[in-house]
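Hi V.,

Quick status before I head out on leave. The structure for the redesign project is tokenized and pasted below; the design run finished overnight.
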């Protein structure tokens, strides 16, 4: 087993472990990043409503079955109650965008792809959420593998950086910060090469 392959296997193990250990919706800005990825998977990104424009600059419409998963987060409960799509409608809720409205759509593309594939099989919110995380992890592993192959020296240092708990928590959850972090790693490797 080569050094690069051992690196990828260990990073995969830590990312998979982090994906399962971190509670759903408790990742860094996951309470707003997941609805953004869900909206992207529906083909509507940053759906704004004139009636809701005073509450947030952008809002995302997601099925209300996800409310149970996201309701435990600190930022979620205070805003969603005022953005309900009709009292007791039982269909959709509106989640305001936080930092997600300042990033590229590409930051949510891997999670949106995972959500799209998961919706083909089930409408279970937990399954869809985990599938979005798995797609993010798969994309992270692919980019980290390319980065480690390109990197001419300092592979052990890069390995230690990638096993940092902050990096692991960004890469194994649905977050808009994972893709820019991965691209910065790749850019650094390309410059060093």
């Amino acid at each position: 087993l080569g050094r690069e392959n051992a690196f990828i296997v260990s990073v995969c193990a830590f990312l998979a472990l982090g994906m399962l250990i971190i509670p759903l919706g408790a990742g860094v800005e996951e309470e707003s990043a997941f609805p953004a990825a869900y909206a992207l998977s529906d083909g509507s990104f940053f759906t704004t409503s004139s009636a809701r424009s005073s509450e947030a600059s952008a809002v995302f419409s997601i099925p209300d079955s996800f409310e149970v998963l996201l309701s435990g987060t600190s930022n979620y409960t205070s805003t969603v109650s005022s953005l309900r799509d009709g009292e007791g409608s039982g269909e959709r809720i509106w989640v305001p965008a936080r930092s997600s409205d300042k990033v590229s759509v590409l930051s949510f593309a891997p999670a949106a792809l995972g959500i799209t594939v998961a919706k083909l099989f089930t409408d279970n919110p937990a399954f869809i959420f985990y599938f979005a995380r798995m797609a993010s992890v798969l994309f992270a592993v692919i980019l980290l593998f390319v980065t480690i192959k390109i990197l001419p020296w300092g592979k052990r240092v890069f390995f230690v950086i990638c096993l940092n708990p902050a990096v692991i928590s960004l890469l194994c959850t649905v977050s808009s910060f994972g893709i820019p972090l991965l691209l910065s790693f790749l850019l650094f490797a390309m410059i060093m090469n």
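Above is the designed sequence. The beta strands are 59-63, 92-96.

G. will cover questions while I'm gone.

Best,
W.
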